[in-house]
Specification:
With 255 residues, the chain is α/β, with parallel strands linked by helices. The chain is built from eight helices and 15 strands. Bound molecules: zinc ion (2 copies).
């Protein structure tokens, strides 16, 4: 995997798109500073990794933003695969506490020995992995799951991941300005009352606030797919004056 690159294994979001696989849902494979980080391994992640010519044995870190199945379903399968059934533990799992521990965790207990290190993802938190700074940014408002934004910093490069959640003013603090890439889980074209997800106008506010060098929209619902994410990205790009792209399954970008 090319140093400082991102592959979108899946770009679907929301119940219908993910559970009917109108778009794939395997998460995001990030290489930063030579380390391979798998983010939000949703349903099919294991399949999509191999489909894209990647290999689970190369995974160094797994990050889960929250426990919903579209973000965590393949966590156990990928750990099993990447560690040869826990014989060769992978470096680090970063996830909110309710993914790892508590009443109803996603992580199977017997796979814990396949992880050299587990750290809880929390807001205003950071850790260092082989020179990569992994930061928990803001606690999002997202129903039924502790959800936290994540950033990756290495050698002046910054990639920000803004996972699912309903927009609130607090999201205009806590992420880094001028990131190389800022990825937004943009589920809806317009704000939708009662839904705990970001919409395009919310993303516009965040881009204007944080001025990333490039913004990527992903995690699309049926409503978003019907509105043509490509057109939305082009329009938004003109409005905010930075490149905005809508991700497609298998899309690869470098930074
Ligand atoms: Zn969710
Ligand atoms: Zn989601």
């Amino acid at each position: 995997m090319l140093k400082n690159s991102i592959v979108f294994l899946g770009t679907g979001g929301g119940r219908v798109v993910v559970f009917r696989q109108l778009r794939h849902s395997g998460g995001i494979w990030l290489n930063i500073g030579g380390e391979n980080i798998l983010i939000d391994p949703g349903p099919g992640s294991l399949i999509r990794i191999y489909e894209r010519g990647l290999d689970t044995k190369d995974i160094d870190v797994i990050v889960v933003s929250h426990r919903h199945l579209d973000h965590s379903n393949d966590l156990n399968a990928v750990i099993e695969a990447s560690t040869e059934s826990t014989k060769k533990p992978l470096g680090l799992l970063v996830a909110p506490e309710d993914v790892v521990d508590g009443e109803d965790p996603i992580l199977l207990k017997y796979l814990r020995k396949g992880l050299s290190q587990i750290q809880y993802l929390k807001p205003n938190w950071e850790t260092d992995y082989q020179g990569i700074k992994i930061k928990g940014t803001v606690k999002h408002l997202h129903k039924g799951a502790e959800t936290i934004g994540v950033e990756f910093h290495h050698d002046g490069k910054v990639v920000s991941y803004v996972p699912c959640g309903k927009f609130f003013e607090g999201m205009l603090e806590g992420y880094t300005e001028g990131a190389d890439i800022m990825i937004f889980n943009t589920t809806f074209p317009e704000p939708k009352e009662g839904y705990y997800h970001l919409s395009v106008p919310d993303v516009e506010k965040m881009i204007n606030r944080y001025k990333p060098k490039k913004a990527v929209l992903t995690h699309f619902s049926v409503a978003m797919l019907k509105s043509d994410p490509q057109k939305i990205a082009t329009k938004l790009s003109r409005k905010v004056g930075i490149p905005v792209v809508s991700a497609y399954d298998g899309m690869k970008i470098t930074f």
